[in-house]
Amino acid sequence: MPTTPPRGPVRAFERSPAPDLARGGMLLLIAVANTVWYLWGRDHAPGNGHPVDGSWIDKATDALVIMTVDMRAYPLFAFMFGYGMVQLYTRQVASGAGERDAAGLLQVRNLWLLVLGFVHAATLWMGDVLGAYGLAGLLLVWIFLRRRDATLLGWAGGLLGLLVIGTAISVVGSSFAARLSSAEAAQAAGPSTSVDPSISLDSYLASVPVRLGQWVYGTLGQGVADLVVPMMILLALWAGRRRILENPGAHLPLLRRVAAIGVPIGWLGALPNALDHLGVLGVPARAEGFFLLVQLLTGFFGGLGYVALWGLAGHVVARRRSRVPAAGIPGAGLLAVDGLVAGAIQAVGRRSLTCYLAQSVLCAPVLAAWGLGLGQHLSSGTMFLYATAVWGVTVLFAVWQENRGLPGPAEVLLRRLTYRGAIRR
């Protein structure tokens, strides 16, 4: 039994703007990245998962998403997940809880995230990330939460080295595949890569086990095997100890360097993939597989760059907020203080779990074959607009909740499960 009751959730006026800005903006990228998989009923390129057909507008949209979103959004998500764990742990310890009890609270929360991920996948979306982050959180909190900074950075660097080696092997192997004879190539290339089968099934009941099978594979792969999520969480543990996003003004040189290096690597690293999709490079389909690991590696740097950009944006908002007397800050939220755009994005960030799940509610029944089946009739360009509109709906909901002084319903559920579970321990 804990010797000190767990501290309740943080209040709005206690929150720094940068983490919520990052979470709110990230969800737009998540919506854009996920809705590509709802374009069912057509062939998708093996190197990036985008449809192989379409107009020039569709191709240009695909190229933009490949460079700026694909495998760049979820590393940002993973970093913010790890950073949030440090914030929760620090608040618990500061409120008088023992380190073991605070770590136990994190593990209860991670376990419930894994459960929520299972439910999310079973009901709506095979690409759920809650399970992957819950699994990674369980492992990394157990092994690394109270380890030294040098250990965190050393392991992150070691995992990055493994990813670099794996990417290099993939590039070399793909170069050999490109030289295969036409007969060998036909055998090696195999069938065209198609959209996720659980989305293209007409029967909802038949889609459930397919989604769950893909979710198990994705949870193990994304949460552990592809190395990016563990690396981002380890770096987030290090950054969270230094309160880099809570106090970005004290870390401006670091944030500027990371943004200046990470974002160009993320975009330029995806440029060959985008050019190939546009037909400029003409890489044989049998050799396109190397793009996946290149996207993964450069997406790690791109995700870090995005974190830094949101940290810099948070510094601007925090400076504006500092000019307002504390008595002038509304109790229900900070929309009036931080401005409409920044305040609205933060409102989404404060309800990131609710808004993330809401995306699946607004997408799966409308786009999947077992629902209305609209995904078959949309193109890359129109799907991009649909994804943006879905994010916009979640913004409106979050602002409405902010003005009423209410948290997101999914956050309420997770908090009740977490704190009740921690007390029962």
Mean pLDDT: 88
What order do the SSEs take from the amino end to the carboxyl end, as H and E?
HEHHHHHHEHHHHHHHHHH
> So what's the overall shape?
globular
Distance between the termini: 5 Å
Fold topology:
Blueprint: H1 17-35, E1 43-44, H2 56-68, H3 73-94, H4 99-123, H5 130-144, H6 149-177, H7 182-189, E2 193-194, H8 197-200, H9 204-225, H10 228-241, H11 252-277, H12 290-322, H13 335-338, H14 340-350, H15 352-367, H16 380-404, H17 409-424
Antiparallel strand pairs: 1-2
Helix pairs in contact: 1-3, 1-12, 1-14, 1-15, 1-16, 2-11, 2-16, 3-4, 3-10, 3-12, 4-5, 4-9, 4-17, 5-9, 5-10, 6-10, 6-12, 11-12, 14-16, 15-16
Please characterize this protein's 3D structure.
With 425 residues, the protein is mainly α. 71% of the residues lie in helices and 1% in strands. The chain has 17 helices and 2 strands. Strands 1-2 form a two-stranded antiparallel sheet. Helix 6 (149-177) runs antiparallel to helix 12 (290-322). It is globular.
Summarize the structure in short.
This protein is 71% helix and 1% strand. The chain has a two-stranded antiparallel ribbon. The chain is built from 17 helices and two strands.
